[in-house]
Amino acid sequence: MNVALDARRLKAAEEFRAAGVPHRRMEAWKYSDLRPLIDAEQVASAPAAQWSIEAEGVELFDPAAGEGAFAGIMGEASLAFATATLGLRVKAAGRVRIAFATPGQARLRIVLDDGARLDYVESAPGGGLQNIGTEIVLGRGARMTHARLAQRAGGARIGDVSVTVAEGGCYRLHCADFGSDLSRLELDIKLRGIGAQAHLSGTSVLAQGLHADVTTHVDHAAGDTCSTQLFKLVAADKARAVYQGRITVRQGADGSDSRQTAKGLLLAERAEIDLKPELEIFADEVKCAHGAAVGDLDADSLFYLRSRGIADDEARALLIRAFLAEPLDEVEDEAMRAALWAAIEDALPGAMGQP
Amino acid sequence: MLEIKDLHAAVDGKEILKGLSLTVNAGEVHAIMGPNGSGKSTLSYVLAGRAGYKITSGSIRYRGEDLAALAPEERAAKGIFLAMQYPVEIPGVTTLTFLKTALNAQRRARGESELDAMGVLKRVRARASELKVSEEMLKRALNVGFSGGEKKRLEILQMALFEPRLAILDETDSGLDIDALKLVAEGVNALRAPERAMLVITHYQRLLQYIVPDRVHVLSAGRIVREGGPELAHELEAKGYEDIVRSAA
Amino acid sequence: MAAVETREKVSALAEKYKYGFVTDIEMERAPKGLSEDTVRYISAKKGEPDWMLAWRLSAFRRWVEMREPNWARVHYPKIDYQDAYYYAAPKNTPAKQSLDEVDPKLLETYNKLGIPLSEQMLLAGVAVDAVFDSVSVATTFKAKLNEAGVIFCPISEAIRDHPDLVRKYLGTVVPVTDNFFSTLNSAVFSDGTFVFVPKGVRCPMELSTYFRINASETGQFERTLIIADEGSYVSYLEGCTAPKRDENQLHAAVVELVALDGAEIKYSTVQNWYPGDEEGKGGIYNFVTKRGDCRGRDSKISWTQVETGSAITWKYPSCILRGDNSVGEFYSIAIANHYQQADTGTKMIHLGRNTRSRIVSKGISAGRAQNTYRGLVSVHPKAANARNHTQCDSLLIGKQCGAHTVPYIESRNPSARIEHEATTSKIAEDQLFYCLQRGINPEEAVALIVNGFCKEVLQQLPMEFAVEAQKLVGISLEGSVG
């Protein structure tokens, strides 16, 4: 494949070269250090990712013409270096199931025309270096449901998703991350039109020395926009779960409503949870609130369950499921919700320190 | 005391009052009745000078003075009191602090000496017991966590404390049970005086059983469509607004 | 018509930063600029022992290699560190044995500031150390404090009279090379306050330092060190003002607190440095490092700050909760109006078991100001059962200001509990109207509502200062509605 590097790609390559592989001394990557895992050359020469896709109601196109806005530096890298590219256009209603089959780099561009709908499920198993940059453009009144399943894996797995939502559009995301040596989903969402909405939810369930980082930036750039976020993190063993969420309300984006909740359940002495829920407000007619908390399982609840004859392990599992239930309830598709619960059930014994 | 002539007023560019005229003399109690959306609350806010309530034509004279030229706090100092339908919560500001600040602001504006905390407390206490406003309520943040009845009682307490010349009671009966209604009405009746006028705004005739007005005005679509004595309230209760408004039209 | 009148009233009021006068007094200055010679000059002026000079020089040599931090949400033109004076003192000011020896002009200055220094006139039970530009000009109530064994003196005096204590603690909480501004301070600090409260002593009165910048083109670099020995208690308050000037002046202070077993330090600040004018011209750059070390078991350090002044505020009074069962508190009101920028918050570092911390931050933004809360709660692996609760509320007045919240929460102990809540709101139109209807004018109404918003923090201030702080809240917001 010999894609000419147009100006935008060139700029992306320059930006990546200037910044280098993200590391913990960069504010945005404070809790996720990529440098011990990969170097810049590996990113630049990462192989093309391969995938299998089931798609209905979508048109495929080649997004190589270098449009593209990305959330972070690894998104720029995907634009600069990915040789595997995919464009999806939805005119009315579409359904996509995509499973990345190998590590490697890819760049996707998804466009929903005005009033279109898309149900999009992505599975990112990781292994080695996986860097998937996805640019999503929602037209007026378009609605997209995005589910991302990041299975337990090794290596560095990066998902970089940039979304722009036009007037009256709505983007919903649920991500489930079971960790990797370094796993990160970075989301940059611009609510560009009046009444645009974004609803984000997710869970990270981590054991061993695994890592998962959800980093979001929701930018309320127009009036009467609305965003909600609900993330629950469980870290056991030596795992590290990270949530960074920044909400911006720009001057003039009056009537914006933004809520954000991040909760961590820390289950072991050597595990770590880091939360950074950030507000950046330049308008006064807004409702903004965020809450964050970290703790372990509630001792009173545990005792109550055990006093009713439920064994310790079972009681703990019950309480962890209860902790995770709220974000999963945000998933509307029943089959998807069942699949996510099944993945959590698989991960639970590990998270509870069982082999 | 109050002379409103052909008053037109708009909110957000939409005309709500459309040629309202009304005269209230000292010592009188007037009731303004009307269906939802007839402009009752708009009238009360225009009289109190709330931002966003714009007089487009007509005039309001209060004790010979053009009311429109005065800021809300100046109107308050000159004796206009509005008991609000939804008294506002102000977290962190204790009720007593608020009463002291307001009372002294009015006194200062009138060139009277300010009262110290004890002086204010004395005056508040003298009026609090009959309205069942407890000391504990006075220590809580203004209206925060107060029940509907507590809020309305506190409004009447403020009215008693500030001794206004023109008291406007905006739907003071809303959200009150019968006992609370009686208590509030007694508080209001105790304040009837030859030098004081009252404008009682209400949707229902119920409150007027306890606060018997000298005159009743029916407001519809921004204008007064009928006037009468206290018996008009009973007629309204029996026939409903629709009939009265239609026959007046 | 009423609105126009209000606006006129408001702009008249906004003129009155009432501490903006200059005292005309003969000054002695170090030559302009910063070099090893400047450091030697300051040390020599103070008659310091060699170890102190060596300490300063090591700081200076590190500072030369350091870079100014740029991570805070504050913007200002590059500071030319060579274009300022680093030492300015009223002439003839060796340590005073009695107030009679103090230049009457200085006494008058402090009277005008509302800090009468004559002992008879002082608020009952408050001892004051007055720092004028680079030196301490008066310390009151010394005799009474001596009786209790409390040392309360200018730090320059402590270096001479209590070298062992100073050497033992100075730089142990904020290391010499902690950050750019603290390192600069370590090199050139000229005076400040030293407090030592001996074992088991409850300091018999509030201690207070009053900082005053007077000279132009002069930085102020004071250094405060407070040590509370086992089982002792002290409450300390600092106040700050400066003249109105079109230039920006640098203030880079360092405050170190050490609380040993069972000791408690309550540290309150009312910061009212000149904030600049309504166009954002002039004002103090307030780059301050404040840190407390709960070194002993069951110790407690509580910071309360009311930050209303300065063009730029960059400060994060922090607690290192090293001792088991130790407690850290941070109560903050930060008001930014016109073009002020504030980036302030705290760090609570939980190292010991059963350590607890509480953060209450109230940020108010008006005009074109930007106000940022930045805070870290970090629980280390050994801090079993650590607890933190953070409440962070922002209030916006007007459409051109910003309110930002940047909390970092890092937990590495499963038995720890951390909770963080944040809200952003504005003064509701109905709240304002309710106050106006009851006869309260707009300025007073805003002051009343904002004071209500800040109540939880104001309650933490010593009684004598709470009333002043409430007034200051109102004054700082003048011109924010109209």
- Tell me the span between the first and last alpha carbons of chain C: 12 Å
Largest sheet of chain C: 11 strands, mixed
Count of discrete domains of chain A: 1
The largest pleated sheet of chain A is described as: 16 strands, mixed
Helix content of chain A: 10-25%
Note the beta-strand portion of chain C: 25-35%
The residue ranges of chain A in which pLDDT falls below 50 over 5 or more consecutive positions are: none
Rg measurement of chain A, Å: 20 Å
Query: Count of helical segments of chain A?
Result: 6
The ordered H/E elements of chain A are HHEHEEEEEEEEEEEEEEEHHH
Q: How many helical elements of chain C?
A: 12
Proportion of strand residues of chain A: over 45%
SSE topology:
The complex is a heterotrimer of chains A (355), B (249) and C (482).
Chain A: H1 7-19, H2 40-44, E1 51-61, H3 73-81, E2 84-100, E3 104-112, E4 117-123, E5 129-138, E6 143-150, E7 156-165, E8 170-177, E9 182-191, E10 197-206, E11 211-220, E12 226-235, E13 240-249, E14 256-266, E15 272-281, E16 286-295, H4 299-307, H5 312-329, H6 334-351
Parallel strand pairs in A: 2-3, 2-4, 3-5, 4-6, 5-7, 6-8, 7-9, 8-10, 9-11, 10-12, 11-13, 12-14, 13-15, 14-16
Antiparallel strand pairs in A: 1-2
Helix pairs in contact in A: 1-3, 4-5, 5-6
Chain B: E1 2-11, E2 14-24, E3 29-33, H1 40-48, E4 53-62, E5 65-66, H2 72-77, E6 80-83, E7 90-94, H3 95-109, H4 117-128, H5 135-139, E8 141-142, H6 148-162, E9 166-170, H7 178-190, E10 197-202, H8 206-210, E11 215-220, E12 223-228, H9 231-239, H10 241-248
Parallel strand pairs in B: 3-10, 3-11, 6-9, 9-10
Antiparallel strand pairs in B: 1-2, 1-4, 4-5, 7-8, 11-12
Helix pairs in contact in B: 3-4, 6-7
Chain C: H1 2-14, E1 27-29, H2 36-45, H3 50-65, E2 88-90, H4 104-112, E3 126-132, E4 135-139, H5 142-148, E5 151-154, H6 155-161, H7 163-169, H8 180-188, E6 193-197, E7 206-212, E8 223-228, E9 233-241, E10 248-251, E11 254-259, E12 264-271, E13 283-294, E14 300-307, E15 312-315, E16 318-321, E17 327-336, E18 341-350, E19 356-366, E20 370-379, E21 387-397, E22 402-411, E23 417-426, H9 429-437, H10 442-453, H11 455-458, H12 463-476
Helix pairs in contact in C: 2-3, 3-8, 6-7, 9-10, 10-12
